[in-house]
Amino acid sequence: MAFALELVGERWVPLILRELMFGPRRFSELRRGLPAISANVLTQRLESLESNGILVRRRLPPPASVQVYELTPWGYESEDALASLGRWAVRSPLHDPRLPLSGASLMMSFRTMIDPARAAGIDAAIGFQIGPDPFSTHLCDGRMAVARAEATDPALVMRSEEARNIAAVVYAGEPLTKLEQAGLLQVEGNRALAERFVTLFPLPPKVV
C-alpha cells in the first residue's frame, strides 16, 4: 500500500490519472482540466509518471502532429483503486458535490457510483458535451462504458458548459427543468431515460 502511494499518491497525480482515464490528452488539455496546477508542477508529475511506466508520451500522426500523454495498460488499471478511494471519500461530511469539476471527473464519478440494481434493464447510448469535451457512453448490464468521443446515434444527449451543472442534478437533487430553464443544461432525446438516468448514482450515507 505504501509503495502504491509512492507511485500515485503524490499531490495532483490521481487527478492527472483521472483526466487521462478516457484517452490521451495534450498538455494544454490537461491544464484546462486541472486549472489550479502550474505548468512546472504538471511537467514534473508527467515525467514522474512516465518514468514509473504509468503513462507514455507519443506524437499523433499528421495532420495533428502534436504530442499527447496516454496511460499505459497498467496505468489504466489504476481506475479500480481510484474508484475505491472515491467511494470511501464521498461518505465524508466535507464532500460537496456542487463544487467545480471536469468532464472526466464527472464521467469517472458515474462509473464509480452507478447502482447496478437501479440501472437494470437499461441498454442505451448516451452522449455528453461538457464544454469542448465530448463523451460517448454506453449503459448496459448495470455498467457504464465511457470514451472521449462523439456519441454515435445516442438515445440521449446532455450538454452543459460546466460538468457541475450535470452533477447538481445527479448528486445534489436539482430538478432537470430548473437547470434547463436557467440555460445551464440542454437535454436532447429520450426524456424518460434522462429522468431515470439522473437517479442511478445514489451517494452513500455520510459518516456521523
Give a description of the structure.
It is built from 10 helices and 7 strands. A 5-stranded mixed beta sheet has the order 5-4-3-6-7. A hairpin with a 2-residue loop joins strand 4 (133-140) and strand 5. It has helices spanning 2-8, 13-20, 27-33, 39-51, 73-76, 78-89, 103-113, 163-172, 176-181, 191-197; strands spanning 55-59, 67-71, 123-130, 133-140, 143-147, 156-160, 186-189. Helix 6 (78-89) crosses helix 7 (103-113). Helix content is 41%, strand content 19%. The chain has 208 residues and is α+β, with helices and mostly antiparallel strands. The mean pLDDT is 94.
Summarize this entry quickly.
With 208 residues, the chain is of the alpha+beta class. It is built from 10 helices and 7 strands. The strands form 2 sheets. The chain has a 5-stranded mixed sheet.
Summed over residues and divided by their number, the pLDDT gives a mean of: 94
Unreliable spans? none
Category from helices, strands and their pairing? alpha+beta
Helix content: 40-55%
- The main sheet orders its strands as 5-4-3-6-7
**Terminal Cα separation, in Å?**
27 Å
> Based on DSSP secondary structure assignment, what is the total number of beta strands?
7
Rg, rounded, reads: 17 Å
| Total of DSSP H or I helical runs spanning 4+ residues | 10
Describe the main β-sheet briefly.
5 strands, mixed
Q: State the order of secondary-structure elements, H for helix, E for strand.
A: HHHHEEHHHEEEEHHEH
Strand content: 15-25%
- The outline comes out as globular
